[in-house]
Amino acid sequence: MNVPNTSATPAPAVTAPNAASHAPTHATAAPLPLLPRPAAVEFEAVLERGAYTTLTQFGVIDVHGDDAASFLHSQLTNDVQHLDAATARLAGYCSPKGRLLASFLSWRTGDTIRLLISKDLQAAVQKRLSMFVLRAKAKLADASAQLTVVGLAGDVRKALSQVFDALPDAVHVQVDGPAGSLIRVPDAEGRARYLWIGPQAEVAARRPLLDGTLTQVTPAVWDWLDIRAGEPRITRPVVEQFVPQMVNFDVLGGVNFRKGCYPGQEIVARSQYRGTIKRRMALANVAGELAEVGAGGELFHSDDPGQPCGQIVNAASAPEGGVDALVEIKLAALESGSVHLGAADGPVLRFLPLPYSLPADV
Questions:
Q1: Looking at the domain that runs over 276-361, which CATH code has it been given?
Q2: pTM of the prediction?
Q3: Kind and range of the H or E element at 246?
Q4: CATH numeric code, 42-228
Q5: Model confidence over 5-45: pLDDT tens digits?
Q6: In this predicted structure, which of 105-114, 223-232, 272-281, 345-354 has the lowest mean pLDDT?
Q7: Taking CA atoms, which of 43, 136, 265, 356 is between 20 and 30 Å from 321?
Q8: How many CB atoms neighbour CB 172 within 10 A?
Q9: 188 phi and psi, to 5 degrees?
């Protein structure tokens, strides 16, 4: 398969489609803050009891209008046209070269389709998508300031039942209520996880119902849970670095290979059907602190120190020490030798099993 390599070049800016304009549209977007290492009691709360956190690392794009679904269907890697009110779906947004500009969780609430996106990409991606609306009856709006995004993990069903009349019983099932939307997302470390996205006032009014039984933790804990769930999030340092399969988006249900065209669709389909996929995403732990192990960091193999064999997709502080990371890597690099961060003599990566099987493993 012909796939883009992971080089040291900085991630390209997400730019507007007008060829005459090459200015980065994310120039005013703040990078995601470096989150401090959570205290041991925060990890313990998630793993032994139940916890919640306000997820400031996400933004929300609302898409309204009669053509909202058909417009997004023509732009994203997953089926939005047939997205119903009880389902959430992962989706990617690709460049014409098939590389991911962003990743989303998408769902319907009333007449609106919502896209949950990494906060550092929200403004740029919303601007780019808006420039392709053309004659479609669709309008995109930044809903981040009106909504609060809460992540809950562990033994949280009793607390949530005080907020929602019904709880989603399967992954990517969602329910709506006066307090907003509640979506079940993939488990991590065997613990159930939910996203609650609701109007700020409604969430603030009901938050005390959580405090009686759940521990409030920092957003960094959720980043770690996402990594342990094997679910990547495209952030600014890795924009346009991966075709979807390189970060397991096909395995996670983020690509529909039967839907119509979208930007990069031909390349994504060709990558799927032209032989064995040679690069995938893996889970690893590496010694060090988060400041030293960031998204976009290059990986090197002991037998081929002259060129990178992969790069960091996402990273978060781990409870047992060091940093857990989702890494995009040549599958051949996992067969023998060792993989190192930054250089062939850098910190060695210790690989861990993903919570799902890749097609080659089945």
A1: 2.40.30.110
A2: 0.91
A3: none
A4: 3.30.1360.120
A5: 333 333 334 443 333 333 334 445 678 989 999 999 999 99
A6: 272-281
A7: 356
A8: 18
A9: -140, 130
